[in-house]
Amino acid sequence: MTSKEQLIELLITKPKSNLIYPLINDVESNSKVNLQCEGELLKGVWELKWSSSTQPWLKQAPWLDNLQVLDPAQKKGINLLRLSGPIGSLAVIAVEAELSINGEQQVGVKFKKGGWIGPSMSNGWRPKLLKGINQSFPAWLDITALDDSLRVCRGNAGTCFALIKRKDISTEEWIPNNVPNA
Questions:
Q1: What does the alpha-carbon distance between residue 117 and residue 12 come to, in Å, rounded to a whole number?
Q2: According to the model, what pLDDT value does residue 182 have?
Q3: Alpha carbons 157 and 165: distance in angstroms, whole number
Q4: Percentage above 90 pLDDT, the chain
Q5: 3 state DSSP class of 14
Q6: What integer pLDDT is reported at residue 117 of this predicted model?
């Protein structure tokens, strides 16, 4: 089993394992990321499975979905926190962002709005209570490992993140194609 396969298995089955960070380092050392050529791999819904952060909302919990929806072609991203399971779609805490590809490994992030997003209606519309965010500092993610199932990145504050792609949730559910933000 490769380091990447071991890492993915631990992220899914034992997300608090002490073996995760050494495996992340090994996966990063064997990865070559070039977002100029492979930026489309970023598109999708990613679930945070491990973080070096001490912040409670950046920690993995079985009762919480910590999702990141990315669509670099539209320069949009959304961070979502919701309860796991069917009730989760009723109350989603969201932060919308504008994205930019800043070289081979870096994604620039400018947070725009944050608040609550409600459940999807039959026509796909979602009620939103979002307030503008005045981001006073540049934010970015250095993508250090990326393929169609795993993303490892390091934020501008030094935090390391490991995310697994969720193939059961569509990007378009959260970021409609070519529709301006309301």
A1: 27
A2: 47
A3: 23
A4: 69
A5: coil
A6: 86
Q: Quick one: tokens of 38?
A: 């492979």
Q: How many CB atoms lie within 10 A of CB 36?
A: 10
Q: Decide if 178 is inside a domain.
A: no
CA atoms within a 13 Å half-sphere pointing along the CA-CB vector of 39: 18
What is this structure's pTM?
Answer: 0.89
Q: Which residue has the tokens 């999807």?
A: 120
Expressed as residue numbers, the domain containing 13 is 3-169
Averaged pLDDT score across all residues of the chain: 90
Which DSSP helix (H) or strand (E) runs through 51?
Answer: strand 44-51
Residue 182 lies in a domain: no
CATH number for the domain spanning 72: value is: 2.40.128.280
Give the count of beta carbons closer than 10 Å to the beta carbon of residue 112: 18
CB 43 within 8 A of CB 171: yes
